[in-house]
Each structure stands twice: as C-alpha cells, then as structure tokens.
Amino acid sequence: MPDADELVADALAAVRGTDVRQAERQLDRLMVGTGAADGATAVDAALRRRLVRGLGQLWPRGWQPVDVHRITGRRLDARAARLVRDALAAQRREQAGPVPDWWDDQLRGLTAEGRDDDHDLLAAWTAAEGLDRVDALRAAIDVLALVESLPPIAVLRPPPGSTGAAAPRVAGTGRSGSPMLDRVRALLAKAESTTFPAEAEALTGKAQELIARHSIDEALLAAGAERGDLPGGVRLGTETPYAGAKALLVQEVAAANRCEAVWSDDLGFTTVLGWPADLVAVELLYTSLLVQATAAMLRGRTERRPGSGRRTKVWDESFLNAFALRIGERLRAATEAADQAAVETTGSERLLPVLAARGEAVQERLGTLFPGVTRHRLSVRDAEGWSSGTSAADRAALDVGGGKRPRQVPGRP
Length: 413
Prior knowledge:
single chain; 63% helix; five-stranded mixed β-sheet; 2 domains; mainly alpha
C-alpha cells in the first residue's frame, strides 16, 4: 500500500486533471487510507503537512493571510475558507524567522487563534462543519489544489522570515487608533445609517475634510524624517457581482487620496499603493461608499419607470459606474480645497514639493510592482441607470472627484 503522502499526491494530481472518474477513484483511496490501523490519521496528517507547507510557500510570492482567505471563499466556499483560516493559524506556529506585528493582526482579524495542539486540524474542522469523511477529504483536496496553484503577486510588504537586505523598508498602513481616525469612522458610520441624503453628504464631506487635513499633516511630518521608506500597499476586495464597478470606485477613491490602484479581476481584488495615512483613507472611504452606493442602487430600482425594459443587472452596473465617477470628482474637489487651504497656511514653497515628491514615489512604486498595466475601457449600457447613479452620487455623503478607468494587471481581461 502507498503511504499517506503518496495518496495525497495522487488525489491532488487527479483533481487537477480532467478525468472525473479518476478523481473519484483517488478520493476513494484516500478514504481507505494506508491500510494500517491509523491509516485515516496518517492521511489527515499528510494533508495538514502539505497544506501548511503550501501556505508558507505563498508568503515570498506576495500573498498575505487575508488574500488567501478571500480568494478561497471566492473560488470555493465559506466552508473551505474556514479550513484555510485554521490552517493559517497552524502555519503561523511553524513559521521560521521574524513575523511582523501586522501579520499577526491579520490573523487575529480572521479569528484564526488556533489551538495548543492543532495536529488534528482536519478532524476538528470536519466535526465543526458537520461533514462526513468523504466530503471533508474532497473539500480539503480542493483547498490544497487552490493553494498550490496561486500565482505570484506583488510583494507589498516584507513577508515573515524576511531580514536585512532582503526586506526593503516599506511604510505601514497607519492603522493606529488615532482620535482623528476614530472621528472619521464615526462620521462614516452615521453617513451609512442615515436615510437622509443631505445628512449623509454633510457627514461624508466632513470625513473627507478630516482625512485630507490628516494626510497633509502626515506628509509634512514625514518630510522632516529621513527614513527612506517605500510607499506601502493594501488589497481591497472587488468581487462579483459588479466587480468592475467596485474596482472603479476604488480607483476613484484612491486617485482622490494620492494613491494608485490596479485591478486584478481574476483574483478578485484591487491593489492600492500609497502612503500610510492615504491608504487608511482609501480603505475607510471605499468601504463606506460601497455601502452607500449599494443602498442608493436598491432605492433607485424602486424608482425606475414602469416598463423601462432594461435588465436589472445592466441598470445596476451603469448606476454603480456613474456613482463611482461622480463620487471621484467630488472627492478630488474636497482634496484640492484642503490642499489650497494648507498652502495658504503653510506656504506653497514648503508643502507643494513634499506632495510632489510623495506622488513621484508612489508612481515609481507602481512602475516597479506593475510594469505595464493596461486600462480597462468603461462602457455605458443603460442611460437611465447612469443618470440615476450620477444623481445618487451628488446626494452621497461627501464633496469629492474622478474620471479614470480602473487599471488592470497586464494580460487580464
């Protein structure tokens, strides 16, 4: 009888192929196990070892825990994502070398605390999900096949184990609990919950004003410290439905906050590059505006003319695209107003060179990580949805601006 590692390898090879019957035969062999009394336990241990090893090999290839968790849920299901979450905790226990604090923050955000002894990972997950043995093995093999097939992506921050020259210093994401950011979060939460567009506009406008001022303060403060950091980056989920509209919204919010954005449609996320305070701004605003846009879209559906004849999906997409572009314009207007006010207070000779240098650094980082991005052309397929989306953006919580189509990773549709 083959050993457990061979059984897992054979099942994985069969799943990657096109012969469904062969895949089922190999799954049956996994069920039988090695033939020894502890055959099932040996198979579980082999699956765990290979999954943990596969996760560890992703980190130098640019992946982060939240990325792997997100794409597992996108391509498989929530149950598979929970297995990955548990495997991430197990992998963390075996990670060699230094592990940055932000990495552990991501794991805590996934509630991947793990157990003192996680060698029974697969059995514990199977019991928690209420699965029978065959379904658990099938799901585990699918997860393993996905993890081992993920392509290299941009390395936004030095991964665990990086030291010295191999780990260029990259600016963090500025997630400290500053009072200003707490105020912004509170304003945006109110903007999302109110049913009065004028109130939402005032609340979001105030949030953008605070964000813009904070960004300028951070830029001036950083200008006096010779650290040599590179701009950092975050990845924001832009998944179906309406992935293109979500990517456009990220692009517009990023542009208004001195960041650059690149959409990876096939991977379900948009990468945003920028300086810490600006990255936080993009995350906060995108999350809030997506909630506002979705709510406005659902209200707009009920206001459509009877018998307008266009499919709901086409109308929704046009609505969200128009919303994103108009919001982008309003956001940029707010940022420009904050810049002008800061110039009058600080002096153009001090502020403008600082902002220009930071902008150039972000552009250079974009060119290094994404050498050859392409533009994705935006088409309007429903004039009524476009008009309604523009009107909704005019009523949304802010005062801001945009116009560019989302960039995409080369070779992706």
